[in-house]
Design brief:
mainly beta; four-stranded antiparallel β-sheet; Immunoglobulin-like; elongated; single chain
């Protein structure tokens, strides 16, 4: 299995309370396994507040819906041993 690396990392975002925000991270290979999103070191799950998806096989996205002050912090995307933060 090829070593999947991060081709294009996360970018810092500033949003207003109540808005949605989307983070994108592009990886080197499709169907990457061992992928994880975190907010302040807490693993995020796909649910009504967090939409986690993959676009075109290599672009992993995280959308936080209706953000609040509690959502302020570091977003981390990890694939294998590689990480990107914003």
């Amino acid at each position: 299995e090829p070593d999947v690396t991060i081709v294009s990392g996360l970018k810092d975002m500033v949003v207003l309370e109540g808005d949605d925000v989307t983070f994108r991270c592009q990886v080197s290979h499709e169907n990457a396994r061992d992928v994880e999103w975190k907010l302040q070191d807490v693993a995020l799950q796909n649910n009504e507040m967090n939409e986690i998806s993959v676009e075109k096989g290599r672009t992993h996205t995280l959308t936080l819906r209706k953000v609040t002050e509690q959502d302020i912090g570091t977003i981390t995307f990890r694939v294998g041993p590689h990480t990107s933060t914003a």
